[in-house]
Design goal:
615 residues; alpha+beta; six-stranded mixed β-sheet; four-stranded antiparallel β-sheet; 24 helices; 50% helix; 11% strand; binds protoporphyrin IX containing FE; iron ion binding
């Protein structure tokens, strides 16, 4: 993940049984919302293999267009535009040119209420309701079309700079990255990640990045690929059962559980087994994730209000969830430390314990301090960073595929011909070219997270605009990825825009107009891991099943935290493909043991393509 906090609006107390909707396929009129998920009731009805006409979605699309048109009209009417000062600005400008010191001009400027920074950053003044009415990056997109690549958004006393210009994003993220911190993000995430790698700045970040990046070496990623296959196979079994029983399924929560199971094994060799069980620890993880999400979208820091701190039952629940997770982490660290002490393996660059290839094992073997809070903070950070981001990518990929049957067909053809009857290996990652393009394109349309957060640590210049220190900045990846001048048919899901024989698109070869994993020294450390995870999951699922939106499911709408979620789940009808390849993990592992000793160059090639920034 990411900048990010976003987590899930996932009622942990709701059992898996109700999340995998135990509902037969029923008529449209019979949906009722239940605790954030949707229940169907009624009589079974048939479905087709093509795109299902869904009038409620069309209506929804119309409504969206109307809201956008209204917003554009409000922008055009000047509602958001702040009048530029006239005479005062010219006076200050003149004095500045005459050599009057900037301290004097600053005082004068405050006194007459004008700014001496020229040219002035375009300003949009918003009512918070305009932004809060929907996923906040959508109104930011409309404002960007009006105000351009950098503008200031002011809500009462608060103000943010919104950046949607690739050159300026590059300046902040890469060229002058030292002048920027994670700002409010670090403040919001402190309760769960402490000084973990995502919120950390300065020396702590530098030291920890150097310790963690080597843990995700080639041999580790290769070992992870077979684990992704095993975890996805468990999901396939769930879907098999649902398809046989003609039950519709809510895919967003299933993807969240799949990626939780994967990241638990990958980071500290713990099997949450959340696809099968609702254990206390799974509930604790979701309690903490939801809290981080609530904080990330709250206009005021309610968690700092003294009375709330002392008496809130919600906070008590969060604290006990954190206690449980930390206790589990302590146990895992102790177990792992014993293993490290007993083993005879020498630590080296590609060190990996075959029984426990986890990042934790690598860190302890490399000499990380077992008792340190920093180690726990980093483990927690990776658990969160690597979980909801990938889940969101899978959710939106399947949503997009359900809308474009021709893309799905092409994808299935590739997977059939490359994989045939077996689980993916590292060599397949290079061959599944169209699958990779589908994911590239899904990440363009639904970047996770849609905005990156920074704060200026010193005065700087963004393009032509001078800025002061302590500016809070949102870099809108959503806007960069949908810029109509940069992308033909920017809103269209079109994996063909990325040529199969071209390089894997990244921020460097796309000049910072495409940055699904960020860029510069703080680029995602899990980019290759996550790309392979998504490729394996997509390939295995589409090989076995057809997916389409469940008949009568509510329209899929977006909501925000740090990643993009649906408001009411991704309710799908899953049907077995007519000739499902009879693949089992056991059978394929027998055949695929060689994948562990995979050709290094396959990883090296892919690595070079996926990740440009390793520091
Ligand atoms: C498709 C899935 C993922 C996406 C889209 C994604 C995206 C991102 C982005 C955009 C950033 C940059 C944030 C910023 O500059 O503010 C980031 C950072 C990070 N990601 Fe990921 N990520 C994904 C998966 C993962 C996984 C699987 C892991 C762990 C194994 C991970 C660990 C991290 C960490 C630790 C950082 C912070 C790096 C630093 O600040 O030095 N991410 N991610």
């Amino acid at each position: 993940m990411a900048t990010t906090l976003h987590l899930h609006h996932f009622p942990a107390q709701q059992s898996l049984q109700s999340k995998i909707l135990h509902n037969r396929r029923y008529p449209i009129s019979s949906f009722t919302k239940l605790n954030g998920s949707v229940r169907f009731s009624g009589i079974k009805c048939s479905y087709t293999n093509g795109k299902v006409p869904n009038s409620s979605e069309d209506e929804e699309e119309e409504k969206k267009k109307k809201i956008r048109a209204e917003l554009s009209a409000r922008i055009a009417s000047g509602e958001f535009t702040v009048e530029k000062s006239g005479f005062q600005s010219q006076l200050l400008d003149g004095l500045s040119k005459l050599g009057v010191p900037s301290e004097v001009l600053d005082v004068l400027s405050k006194w007459i209420g004008a700014s001496i920074d020229y040219p002035k950053i375009p300003e949009a003044k918003g009512a918070i309701s305009a932004i809060r009415s929907e996923a906040f990056f959508i109104p930011l997109y409309e404002l960007y079309l009006t105000y351009g690549g950098v503008f200031r958004l002011t809500f009462g006393p608060k103000s943010f700079l919104i950046v949607s210009d690739p050159a300026i994003a590059k300046h902040i993220l890469r060229d002058n990255s030292k002048a920027y911190s994670k700002g409010i993000l670090a403040e919001i995430l402190e309760f769960v990640m402490g000084k973990g790698l995502i919120p950390a700045d300065g020396e702590i970040w530098r030291v920890r990045r150097r310790a963690i990046v080597p843990a995700l070496h080639q041999k580790y990623v290769t070992a992870m690929i077979s684990m992704f296959g095993q975890a996805t196979d468990r999901l396939c079994k769930k879907l098999d059962a649902a398809a046989c029983d003609a039950e519709d399924v809510e895919m967003e929560s299933l993807f969240s559980r799949l990626t939780l199971d994967i990241i638990g094994k990958a980071v500290f060799n713990y099997d949450f087994d959340s696809l099968t069980n609702d254990t206390g620890i799974v509930e604790a993880v979701y309690t903490v994730l939801r809290e981080a999400e609530d904080r990330s979208i709250s206009p005021i820091p309610f968690w700092e209000i003294p009375i709330w701190k002392d008496f809130s039952p919600k906070l008590k629940k969060v604290n006990s969830a954190l206690e449980l997770i930390n206790g589990t982490l302590d146990d895992l660290i102790a177990i792992c430390k014993r293993m490290v002490d007993e083993e005879e393996l020498q630590f080296h660059e590609e060190y990996m314990n075959e029984k426990d290839p986890s990042i934790l094992h690598f860190l302890l073997a490399s000499g990380d301090d077992v008792s340190s809070k920093q180690l726990r903070d980093d483990l927690m950070t990776m658990l969160i960073a690597g979980h909801e981001t990938t889940a969101a990518v899978l959710t939106w990929t399947f949503y997009l595929l359900s809308k474009e049957p021709s893309v799905m067909l092409k994808l299935q053809n590739e997977v059939d011909s490359v994989l045939g009857d077996r689980i993916p290996t590292i060599e397949d990652m290079k061959k599944l070219k169209y699958t990779t393009r589908v994911i590239n394109e899904s990440l363009r349309l639904y970047p996770q997270p849609p905005v990156l957060i920074r704060r200026s640590l010193e005065d700087d210049k963004l393009g032509e605009y001078p800025i002061k220190r302590d500016e809070d900045i949102f870099i809108s990846i959503w806007n960069l990825h949908r810029c109509p001048k940069r992308w033909e048919d920017a809103d269209k899901f079109n994996p063909e825009r990325w040529p199969l024989d071209g390089p894997n698109p990244n921020e460097t070869n796309q000049s910072f107009s495409y940055l699904p994993f960020g860029g510069g020294p703080r680029k995602c450390v899990g980019d290759m891991f996550a790309s392979f995870e998504a490729i394996v999951a997509v390939a295995m699922l589409v090989r076995r099943f057809n997916f389409q939106m469940a008949l009568g499911a509510p329209p899929v709408k977006m909501t925000t935290g740090a990643t993009i979620h649906t408001t009411e789940g991704l309710n799908m009808t899953v049907t077995k493909r007519i000739k499902p390849p009879a693949m089992t993990v056991e059978a394929s592992s027998l055949r695929d043991d060689s994948s562990i000793n995979m050709r290094r160059d396959a990883v090296a090639d892919q690595k070079g393509e996926v990740s440009a920034a390793r520091s």
